[in-house]
Amino acid sequence: MMAFFAYLLRCADASYYAGHTDDLALRVAQHQAGECGGYTATRLPVALVWSQEFATREEALAAERQIKGWRRAKKEALIAGNWKRIQQLSWGTRNPLPEHLK
After folding, report:
1. What is the DSSP string of 72-93?
2. Mind listing the pLDDT tens digit for each residue in 55-75?
3. Which of 1.10.10, 2.60.40, 3.30.70, 3.40.1440 is the CATH number of 4-101?
């Protein structure tokens, strides 16, 4: 059974890059060597700071797209594994944060 991964890289300029792949070690090595071009190639070196395995490419791609839409603070909460903070950052001004998440 093939596994797929969503991942987050920290670039040399302290920005984050989200992606997905079916070979995490190879893809990270490609990013580190500048072989992927684009965003990460101009911000070397890069370091893997988070990854999660998924059963399908569609799930990994959905996670990548979701993370790409997140603000920096939420990405950093993900890296830290701080699920409560992720929940807190998910609540906007239209929906006040429930007491149990404060």
Report:
1. HHHHHHHHHT-HHHHHHHH--S
2. 999 999 999 999 999 999 999
3. 3.40.1440
